[in-house]
Design goal:
Elements: E1 40-41, E2 48-52, E3 79-80, E4 82-85, E5 100-106, E6 117-125, E7 128-133, E8 138-144, E9 147-154, E10 157-165, E11 182-189, E12 192-199, E13 202-210, E14 216-221, E15 224-226, E16 231-234, E17 245-253, E18 257-266, H1 270-281, H2 288-303, E19 306-309, H3 313-326, E20 331-332, E21 347-348, H4 353-356, H5 360-367, H6 369-386, H7 410-420, H8 427-438, H9 442-449, H10 456-474, H11 478-488, E22 495-496, E23 501-502, H12 512-515, H13 523-529, H14 533-544, H15 560-567, H16 586-589, H17 593-606, H18 623-633, E24 635-638, E25 643-646, E26 653-658, E27 661-668, E28 681-687, E29 690-691, E30 696-698, H19 699-704, E31 706-713
Length: about 725
């Protein structure tokens, strides 16, 4: 799997083959770009490192700020002013994206710091990124969980230099710059410096070591050297007073001279940053090769947990890269919280909980259950210390960021962990915070009025009460279970009985149709509200474009009228955006798994590809990539319910390492799927030799491992009972 990963997938504008058939009717409202970056990353690590151009949204690449259509070019070729740390992965309009501590190798005077160099000969693999600047300097980056190591190969020059800018942060788009509040920097020894910068409320400490001991080591301020200076202190920085500052090593370079720079990071001071560097990279002075190999070994171990049998190198690349993108975020940084003193699990870059809770967190739970428990514990500490279970949480104070996007989303993740009985969780403690969180922000309207707007929050909160009852039942609190029952049933208040759709409201990145087909705990009741199986299926058919004409996708800078006409289609967004990512599986609750098979087939085969333009939209911290992993395996998690829905796999045979247990998915009658070709349909399913009469597995069955045999054929048959529904709140007994 490792050798097939292409970290460049998703870094440029969507460039997929022309959609055919059903897929040609889906409309893409959001930016047609994956918003990924190819920088060096460690699985769930704290640090990333990549070439920095200042472009939207990660700091890597060539594009301006854009929220719809094809991205607008900011640069016509690849450029970089240096190499920065801490980037988001595949997210959208969150504006400030770290990019702290810019390192720039230069042959020019310090006055030229910030100029854009052309870059070419880019290469990347998991944990390693390389590029050559037009100055002739070859640049390589690798990372550990809490560190980064740079290696630069210089040409011959009388005054080469390596410049570290601690004032750098954010993006070059309007309002995208990060301004430090306070900072200090000092020379600790020859080749060693350390400092701390407070950015967006977080104190980021660095311990820096450079092996070019024969070069001069200096501090600088406002692009002016400070010979003999050993310390810089800024007690109060404002946007109007900020001047760049940092440190530099400079001297003559021989042809092919290699210089390594090692940086340890911490949110708890320079001494911990130093310890993190030595823990990740040893005593030094050099460590690039060893750290690159160690990170690659960790990636190999994780990537090999998903194996497929395919004759297509391109399909192997798409899957391998999807698994890779699924394991980049969130950032787990144990014992690094800057906001509370205890040594506990800590996490940040939970930037798109409204996307990852449905796909990426179930995948993380399957492949790395111990890290899932670590993340869950971190979420509870965040709630305890900051007052909310996060909807979006970055390396900045404030757990209620992005709360408009959703409510009570972490509850689904916690309910799934509780069902599995994974060790290491205090469920009495969890229940307190889950319950308290339901009553905050939009939860007040929900309790007082029976619904909340945006109306999708009504579904979130009702589902949150249902998921919280899973934990209440597990700890034996029947009073809360009974109390939650009528609240969980308030999902009905969100719907208009006349239309069978959600009530008119405002919606985040979508419309009433995109949000009307999410997988609720009481899907039987939802289908009855829509008028029964046939009426519900007809609504889904309209939404997915069965029988509709092909659509034209938005181009560069689409007009208001063009976007309004597209939204008026009320059409599936084709995984260009994620509000309706669950909708293909809604058919299964109406007894139509054949329709699920058709839609999922066209998404898997036509909406993902190779190359820099291989994603249909923002990857959203791996939420999109995780969707592909699950869908291609023929499994789909119903987050919070402990269910996996079964569908035709896209692989002849696959294997999933679930917490150290192997789940093999084998097929008979398999035909290699093709874009625009027919879907295959499940005929029968056997689990460990026993025929299943249902279209789903429990999470316990998936996590137990075993052998799943799926018999496939060209025509649909009624092969199993539909997935279960529950109007109660006892956590359901399936």
């Amino acid at each position: 799997m490792f050798e097939h990963v292409d970290p460049f997938i998703g870094t440029e504008a969507t460039d997929l083959p022309q959609q055919q058939g059903l897929a040609s009717t889906w409309w893409w409202p959001k930016p047609q770009v994956g918003n990924t970056h190819p920088g060096a990353q460690h699985p769930l690590g704290m640090v990333s490192a990549c070439a920095y151009s200042g472009a939207y949204p990660t700091g890597y690449g060539r594009y301006e700020l854009g929220t719809e259509g094809l991205p607008v070019e900011l640069y016509d070729s690849a450029v970089a002013s240096g190499f920065t740390h801490f980037q988001q992965s595949g997210t959208g309009a969150i504006r400030k994206y770290y990019n702290y501590v810019r390192v720039t190798p230069m042959l020019q005077p310090l006055d030229d710091l910030g100029r854009l160099f052309g870059i070419d000969q880019e290469e990347a693999e998991p944990g390693w990124y390389a590029a050559t600047l037009d100055s002739g300097i070859r640049c390589e980056l690798t990372v550990g969980p809490k560190s980064a190591v740079h290696r630069y190969t210089f040409p011959a020059h009388r005054d080469a230099r390596l410049v570290v800018d601690l004032s750098q942060g954010g993006l070059t788009i309007p309002h995208g710059r990060t301004v430090p509040l306070r900072a200090h920097l000092e020379t600790a020894a020859p080749g060693v410096a350390q400092g701390e910068v407070v950015v967006e409320g977080a104190p980021l400490a660095v311990h820096v070591e450079c092996d070019a001991r024969h070069w001069r080591q200096m501090l600088w301020y406002d692009r002016r050297l400070m010979p003999g200076g050993t310390r810089l202190d800024f007690d109060r920085i404002r946007p109007t007073t900020l001047r760049p500052f940092g440190l530099m090593w400079a001297g003559p370079s021989e042809p092919g001279e290699v210089v390594e720079l090692r940086i340890g990071f911490s949110l708890r001071g320079v001494e911990q940053a130093r310890r993190n560097l030595y823990r990740d990279c040893g005593d030094g002075p050099t460590s690039f090769a060893a750290r690159r190999a160690a990170t690659a070994a960790v990636w190999r171990e994780q990537l090999d947990k998903v194996q497929v049998d395919t004759p297509s190198a391109d399909k192997q690349t798409v899957l391998s890269t999807a698994v890779y993108h699924s394991l980049v975020k969130p950032c787990l940084a144990p014992d690094e919280s800057p906001f509370w003193p205890t040594d506990t699990p800590f996490a940040f870059d939970i930037a798109t909980m409204w996307d990852i809770y449905r796909t990426q967190l179930p995948l993380l739970t399957a492949l790395m259950p111990d890290r899932a428990v670590e993340l869950a514990t971190a979420l509870l500490h965040i709630s305890e210390e900051e007052g909310n279970l996060p909807i979006g949480y970055r390396m900045a104070r404030g757990a209620d960021q992005f709360s408009r996007q959703g409510s009570a989303l972490a509850h689904t993740f916690l309910a799934d962990l509780c069902r599995l009985g994974l060790p290491g969780m205090d469920w009495d403690w969890a229940l307190v915070h889950m319950h308290n969180d339901l009553r905050r922000t939009y939860g007040e309207d929900f309790l007082l009025r029976g619904l909340a707007h945006p109306i999708s929050h009504t579904l979130d909160l009702a589902y949150g009460y249902w998921c919280t009852s899973v934990v209440a039942a597990a700890v034996g609190d029947r009073t809360l279970v009974d109390q939650f029952a009528p609240l969980a049933a308030q999902w009905r208040n969100a719907f208009d009985p006349g239309s069978g759709l959600l009530r008119d409201s405002t919606f985040y990145e979508g419309g009433v149709w995109n949000y009307s087909f999410r997988l609720l705990h009481d899907m039987a009741g939802r289908i009855d509200l829509a008028g029964g199986d046939d009426a519900f299926t007809a609504m889904l058919d309209r939404f997915f474009g069965f029988g509709a004409d092909a659509v034209k996708q938005p181009g560069v800078r689409p007009s208001v009228e063009e976007m309004a006409a597209g939204y008026a289609l009320n059409r599936f967004e084709g995984l260009n955006n994620e509000p309706d990512m669950e909708a293909p599986w809604a058919y299964m609750y109406a007894g139509r798994p054949d329709r699920t098979a058709e839609v999922v087939h066209d998404v898997v085969q036509q909406q993902f590809g190779t190359g820099r333009g291989g994603l249909p939209g923002n990857d959203d911290s791996g939420g999109l990539s995780s969707w592909y992993v699950w869908a291609s395996l023929g499994l789909f998690p119903v987050a919070g319910q402990g269910l996996f829905l079964l569908n035709a796999p896209a692989w002849r045979e696959s294997r999933l390492d679930v917490g150290g247990r192997a789940l093999s998915i084998e097929t008979t009658g398999f035909v290699e799927p093709e874009p625009g070709g027919p879907a295959q349909h499940v005929q029968e399913v056997f689990l460990d030799g026993t025929r299943l009469d249902r279209t789903w597995l429990t999470a316990a069955e998936v996590h137990r491992g075993g052998r799943l045999l799926v018999e496939l054929g060209p025509e649909p048959v009624l092969w199993g009972t539909r997935p279960p529904s529950s109007s109660a709140t006892d956590g359901a007994s399936w």
